[in-house]
């Protein structure tokens, strides 16, 4: 979206690894930056950023901080309380939780920013239908129960993957319910994706069902290959969105497919 759409309007974007605070400081020392956008943890290798420290750097330079908090939701991380100006969510994911609505949410605790955001939303027409709004509200009612179970399952499954002989690396920051892992042979990926029965082979995340995704050719396929590889998105990487099923069933499914 930044490169293919907004760059054509004259906005310039600089990319850096926000999990390393020194990179953020260096970027601000070299450029006049108006806004900083980050996600934490990142998708799909789950790097975490020091949101509080980054927000302080941005504020000192007169920039606003925008945090994509989709993976952790307000239950596990509250960027606005850490100094961020705006938090954004794909409400399609955990907030709705049932894979049956497309929605996005923008949150701010600044009245002037809220007025500007509302103006743009009204002018562009990016509003949800009443029914879609109801679906998100319905999902929010069970968010705490769902996420508690999903996180419990994720910790058990991450531990299983770390001990498996065919798994070479596990990405899991011990929070949330997304796990990424690298297997020993890229040729085995297609067989794993064909064999899963409890996990569903699909791109989304955050719903009650457990999903397995192949970022290299799915979620990150449009990113140039050299950038994908630099970010660790290689042909051996798989991403799991852990649902609310029984953890033993999920482990048995993975164990059978990994062989």
Overview of the molecule:
The structure is a single chain. The protein has 259 residues and is an alpha/beta fold. Helix content is 37%, strand content 16%. It is built from 9 helices and 9 strands. The protein has helices at residues 21-30, 51-60, 73-76, 111-124, 130-140, 143-163, 189-195, 225-230, 247-258; strands at 35-39, 64-68, 86-90, 104-108, 167-171, 178-183, 200-201, 211-213, 237-241. The strands form 2 sheets. A 5-stranded mixed beta sheet has the order 5-6-9-8-7, with helices on one face. A 4-stranded mixed beta sheet has the order 1-2-3-4. Helix 1 (21-30) packs parallel to helix 2 and helix 7 packs across helix 9 (247-258). The longest helix has 21 residues, at 143-163. It is globular, with a radius of gyration of 19 Å. The termini are far apart. The mean pLDDT is 95.
Derived structural class: alpha/beta
Q: How many whole angstroms does the radius of gyration measure?
A: 19 Å
Q: Order the strands across the largest sheet as they lie in space.
A: 5-6-9-8-7
Strand tally is 9
How much helicity do the residues have? 25-40%
Following the backbone from N to C, one meets helices and strands in this order, namely HEHEHEEHHHEEHEEHEH
Question: Poorly predicted ranges (pLDDT <50, ≥5 residues)?
Answer: none
Q: N- to C-terminal separation?
A: 39 Å
The backbone outline, from C-alpha atoms, is: globular
Number of helices: 9
Described by strand count, sense and barrel closure, the largest sheet is:
5 strands, mixed
Our estimate of the beta-strand percent is 15-25%
Q: What is the overall pLDDT average?
A: 95
